[in-house]
Specification:
Length: 294
């Protein structure tokens, strides 16, 4: 048989490897084609420490949009859990979009299918509420708010431009600061009264994008359950449990000792004789002399 007519046969193992290589190549090409053309976000902080967030995400070259919002944050020795309520997922015209919202790996993951046939960028509007969004540092009279837009663990796509606007409930009197970090690098921001703006251009895939606001703690009035924090509540409950166990143990030991302690045996008590010249009742004892007559 001529060489050009030969049929090449693959073993089952080689066939599986070939399929994996094809899938990997297609996935890599798709990921390189996906990108966020623009991310515009507006954050409205409230007096009670919650925040209303509106995001306008313009996606190109992707069959879906995946937005992951952390439910647990930590800063130094402080850590706290947040509640996130998804309000709406809409297109550019305000019509609802089909989506799926699940909690996975400590994050609220919102997945929105997009028309893959459209070569034009697609706009998705997300609106959600973040409760227990603010952490207060009472020792320095300062508070902060953190929101993560991208990290290196989830949907890894490049961002052409990121623009975030945030407003605080009261006049910070010069105490408002905004930082938009991207993998440890701080980028442009400007503060004007109660409004802060931060931006970043050309963020590579897999880079962190995190907004941090710092402002005076007097601007928020957190409920007790929020400013205590779940970690503090757990520590207090653990301390109270230990104190209750110790108190119960001490009470038990006292009751056992009271039951087993022997009563004194008064029959064994020796009463000493009265001294000479004294009676038992304390009176005088008169002795009769030889010269006395009866």
């Amino acid at each position: 048989m001529p060489r050009s007519w030969r049929v090449v046969f693959f073993t089952p193992c080689q066939a599986r490897m070939a399929k994996l290589l094809v899938v990997f190549a297609l996935t890599t090409a798709t990921l390189h084609a996906q990108r966020i053309v623009m991310l515009r976000a507006h954050v409205e902080l409230r007096k009670d420490g919650s925040a209303l967030v509106s995001e306008k995400v313009t996606v190109q070259g992707s069959p879906f949009l995946e937005r992951s919002i952390p439910l647990h944050l930590s800063s130094g020795t402080n850590s706290w859990d947040r509640e996130i309520k998804l309000i709406s997922v809409q297109d550019s015209g305000g019509s609802p979009l089909a989506h799926q919202a699940v909690i996975r790996d400590g994050q609220l993951v919102v997945t929105v299918p997009l028309p893959s046939s459209s070569p034009e960028p697609v706009v998705v509007r997300l609106t959600y509420e973040v409760r227990r969004a603010v952490v207060v540092y009472w020792e320095v009279n300062s508070a902060s708010f953190t929101l993560i837009f991208a990290d290196n663990h989830h949907w890894r796509v490049p961002f052409d431009q990121v623009l975030v606007t945030a407003t605080v409930p009261d006049d910070p009197q010069g105490g408002l600061q905004a930082y938009l970090n991207s993998s440890g690098e701080e980028h442009g921001s400007v503060v004007d009264g109660r409004t802060a703006r931060a931006w970043r251009d050309n963020v590579p895939a897999g880079y962190w994008i995190m907004l941090t606001l710092s402002f005076p703690s007097r601007m928020v009035h957190l409920p007790a359950r929020d400013w205590l924090g779940q970690e503090t509540v757990r520590e207090l409950l653990a301390a109270l449990f230990i104190v209750a166990v110790l108190a119960a143990y001490v009470a038990y030991r006292r009751s056992v000792m009271a039951e087993t302690r022997p009563l004194p045996d008064y029959s064994q008590i020796v009463i000493p004789p009265p001294p000479v010249g004294k009676t038992a009742d304390g009176g005088s004892s008169l002795e009769k002399s030889d010269g006395d007559e009866t």
